[in-house]
Amino acid sequence: MNGRGWRTGLKAWLLGLLIGLPTGHAQAVDPVVVLTVNDVISPASADYIVRGLGKAADEHAQLVVLGIDTPGGLDTSMRAIIKAILASPVPVAGFVAPSGARAASAGTYILYASHIAAMAPGTNLGAATPVQLGMPGQPDPGANPPAAPRSDKTPQAPTDTLTHKQINDAAAYLRGLAQLRGRNAEWAEQAVRQAVSLPAQEALKLKVVDYVAADLDGLLKQLDGKTFNAAGHEAQLHTLGAAVIHHDPDWRTQLLSVITHPSVALILMMIGIYGLFFEFVNPGTAVPGVLGGICLLLGLYALQLLPVNYAGVALILLGIAFMVAEAFLPTFGVVGFGGIVAFVVGAVILMDTDVPGYGIPLPLIIGLALISALLLVALASMALRARRRQSVAGDAGLVGSVTPITAVQPGNPYNGWVLLQGEHWQVLCATPLHAGQGVRVVARKGLLLEVTTAETVPRGG
């Protein structure tokens, strides 16, 4: 009996070991991919996140953690990110971190769209009221971004039908995301209509977010064993001990972020215009033309991705046209300095400053205006010096020249030959001439120069 029981126990132990082999603890655990957005929501960040989600699916990641710290951004970029999250076969955990970060404006929409919404202590979200771009009463065709946080919590009454429609559309959009993820839809609507905000602990109590974690490790511990629906498929997470892969923004994303910065876009346009201007003034230089063409195209590319005010663009182009025209028109600086004024005004209103992170610093505008003014002054002074300088070509260059006689006509000492401007000229003098004698040109008659004797001859003549 004892021997038979021992053998039975050994068989049971071996059977249990075999059954336990296929469990998740013995299998290789799929990795966790981490993406981060620490700036305004822009075309560059949207491209980075969309490509990052696709790469995570290719790597068979079990979870994507999207670190969020943003003041907001462009509506078109925000919606591109949300569409990618909703279609992702890999669950996405929006994580507002580290402490002190925020998911304001567009970040609130992205957090609501994520399969998992988490925040670190000391962070906040909210203030999702849309802001209209462009001229008052006119919609901007390319953007309708959420606004930056406001200190007051009193809803602003819509000033026109368009604003009312935008607020209703944004409220319905965020409420739909809340219902999709089972979160607080009433607060979502308040965030749009009243621009309210919440800290992390209150957001957890009101079921606006699902988790509060101090760091990434704490979040992964809380998510271990949880099951989420991603693109119609149930996915159970095994995040304890999973490899964490950080996909930081690559060089392409960083380059796009630099180019699409409003200040850089403005500088690129100025370099492009001045480069082409100097190429037109001095054809064949090549370098200014090539550099100017590249910078102008990059600047225009950046502007089409930015929330520009097209009246500002028109004023900038008008100002640049005036400054270029100043080089060709005798207006004594009136057109040029008028162009500087137009440029400054256009640069001030170029970017809609209601969109967080897209303003142009006033010192940069003043600096570019001063550089333009200095260029105009330099061009004007060069033109005045060129006008006052004695001509060295044609009749004006010949008359007054002093040069030695190279030869005297045989039998006629009053006629001789001189070398001027690379050509041999026949000269006529009232007094006899001899070779090597210095003469001064006083007049030109056809191919004959009238000269008088000169006491000295220029060195090297």
Automatic annotation (TrEMBL):
GO cellular component: membrane
All copies of domain NfeD-like C-terminal, residue ranges: 398-451
GO biological process, alphabetically ordered: proteolysis
Disordered: annotated segments: 130-160
Record domain NfeD integral membrane: where: 264-380
One Pfam family from the record: NfeD
Tree of life domain: Bacteria
InterPro entries recorded: ClpP/crotonase-like_dom_sf, Membrane_assoc_protease, NA-bd_OB-fold, NfeD-like_C, NfeD1b_N, NfeD_membrane
Record carries keyword Protease: yes
SUPFAM superfamilies in the record: ClpP/crotonase, NfeD domain-like
Keyword Membrane found: yes
Annotated transmembrane regions: 255-277, 308-325, 332-350, 362-384
UniProt xrefs under Gene3D superfamilies: 2-enoyl-CoA Hydratase, Chain A, domain 1, Nucleic acid-binding proteins
Protein name according to UniProt: Serine protease
Organism name: Pseudomonas chlororaphis
